[in-house]
Write a structure and sequence with these properties.
Length: 511
């Protein structure tokens, strides 16, 4: 199968999964918020955020494993592919054990840093332990997920993730029937479901990919060093991204308490819907770019880089206008109960942060594939650390409102995505930053600004309700579509998309 066909199938599978799991995620938060209540939902979110650092380690190793496996596939060296997979297995299995051991030792320290009502401290401890089990299991199974992704077998990965989302939704829905401490039961059932889906993923990988049937034996030190070095820079970058969103959750909890914390936690989940809508495409693009990098196919890498910027932006834009303009109405539909004050403002700023962040993702994917993350990662860490420090000082000592934390995170992301990342990419590729901006950021802004202006006019003209939500969404999409086609995409990209559509139509007709 041609690479373009593989990419199309993988993208379709990932977006189909997203189309199913995003509504599930919306309902899950509604059921969890309603079943747990403001305090326990805020605790669940804060404790989850406190384990984010461990999750970042796992995500970083995942990026490293997937990149090196895909690169080895591109070189065609099967022995090197087996050696890399053994190294990835060794690293992840060790990570799972370390996560459990360190997490158990640091439990008192982590919980002491959060604002937790005294009567919920025991429950918080159990929840933290269940989250540690989740992370350890995910660490142990991640090499198999990375192996499937590097072979671009996205339909299988998407199916497993859909099943896991469906089980999580069922768990949240059942909160109304649980007796006893609902927070503890909810966390325990969630851990059991993750264990079951992880076992299925491993079994499916071993059945479909014979090369995965091995143990971490005869691991070469050089492979471990290479995987670890890439994971280190990926870890720092992922930590900066996690601090941007989850750091805001923890900061609001520390300064304002769990009720205000639940407001920003709801907003972070709304931000996550936009983020995942864009991320789905890059899940398909990342292994393809790394494989072409292994083949030394620079032209294909650059073409996929442009797609990695523009297509996630288009996907995120579809949700951006209704989420930002119809925030109050959507929150009412989502929760069917009053939400904490400032939830709307948090949501609007964080949705803006999500859209700004995805606009130069393609540049990041190329830097990953070429193993050139160092300079960008350092600047990312500095910018996020300064933003969080500024937000903490303002909220703690200058009486800034809680939503100012989300505003500062959004502005920081705009700086990183619209200037810092293009500047780093221009330096690495040896081209002028103006060329990078004019082929990526500027065409996207030129498409979304007029579409948002028309959507704002509709928002002002109509009364709040389902009719206005539908009108804003439809008008925004109708104005945005031709602007994206003629302004955001260049002539070569339009020709390539037309060719893909013609081939797909021809196959359907023949069938």
């Amino acid at each position: 199968m041609r690479q373009s066909s593989v990419l199309a199938v993988n993208t379709l599978a990932v977006y189909l999964r997203m189309a199913l799991t995003v509504p599930m995620g919306i309902l899950l938060v509604r059921y969890a918020f309603g079943g747990l209540g403001e305090v326990d939902f805020g605790l669940w979110s804060a404790i989850g955020a406190s384990t984010a650092l461990i999750a970042v380690v796992t995500a970083s190793l995942t990026n490293s494993g997937q990149r090196h496996l895909a690169f080895a596939i591109g070189t065609g060296d099967q022995e090197q592919l087996r050696q890399v997979f053994r190294s990835v297995l060794a690293v992840f299995w060790l990570t799972g054990l370390v996560v459990l051991a360190m997490g158990l030792l640091l439990t008192p320290l982590v919980l002491a840093g959060l604002t937790i009502p005294e009567d919920r401290l025991a429950a918080a401890r159990v929840v933290f332990w269940m989250l540690l089990v989740n992370l350890a299991v995910q660490a142990a199974t991640t090499p198999y997920r990375a192996y499937l992704s590097s072979h671009q077998m996205m339909p299988l990965v998407a199916t497993v993730e859909f099943v896991q989302s469906a089980l999580s939704l069922a768990n949240a829905w059942c909160l109304r029937y649980y007796t006893g401490d609902k927070l503890i039961i909810y966390a325990t059932v969630e851990a059991i479901m993750i264990l079951l889906t992880a076992a299925y993923l491993i079994a499916a990988t071993l059945r479909r990919v014979p090369g995965a049937r091995c143990l971490p034996r005869n691991v070469r030190r050089g492979d471990l060093v290479e995987v670890g070095a890439f994971a280190f820079w990926s870890f720092l970058g992922n930590m900066a991204s996690t601090l941007r969103s989850q750091g805001a959750v923890i900061l609001v909890n520390v300064v304002f308490g769990p009720v205000a914390n639940s407001a920003v936690a709801l907003a972070v989940r709304a931000h996550g819907f936009i983020y995942r809508a864009a991320q789905s495409l890059n899940i398909s693009l990342a292994p393809a770019i790394a494989t072409h990098a292994g083949q030394q196919n620079t032209g294909a890498v650059l073409r996929l880089m442009n797609l990695g910027c523009k297509l996630p932006f288009v996907a995120a834009s579809i949700l951006f206008a209704p989420f930002v303009l119809e925030t109050d109405y959507l929150l009412q539909l989502w929760q069917a109960r009053p939400v904490p004050s400032e939830t709307s403002l948090h949501t609007q700023w964080l949705c803006g942060m999500a859209l700004a962040g995805v606009m130069t993702w393609g540049h990041h994917l190329v830097l990953e594939a070429q193993n050139k993350l160092g300079r960008l990662t350092i600047w990312l860490l500095v910018s996020i650390a300064v933003s969080l420090l500024l937000a903490f000082i303002g909220c703690k000592y200058l009486s800034w409102p809680a939503w100012s934390v989300s505003m500062i995170m959004c502005l920081s992301t705009m700086f990183v995505s619209w200037w810092l990342r293009p500047w780093i990419v221009a330096q690495v590729l040896g081209i002028r930053i103006r060329q990078v901006l004019m082929t990526s950021v500027v065409p996207m802004i030129a498409a979304i600004v007029p579409a948002m202006a028309v959507a704002v006019a509709i928002h002002v003209a109509l009364p709040e309700g389902a009719m206005r939500l539908a009108a804003v969404t439809f008008v925004f999409a109708a104005v945005m579509a031709p602007l994206v086609w003629f302004v955001t995409f260049d002539a070569s990209e339009r020709v390539a998309f037309a060719d893909i559509f013609r081939r797909g139509y021809s196959k359907l007709v023949r069938r």
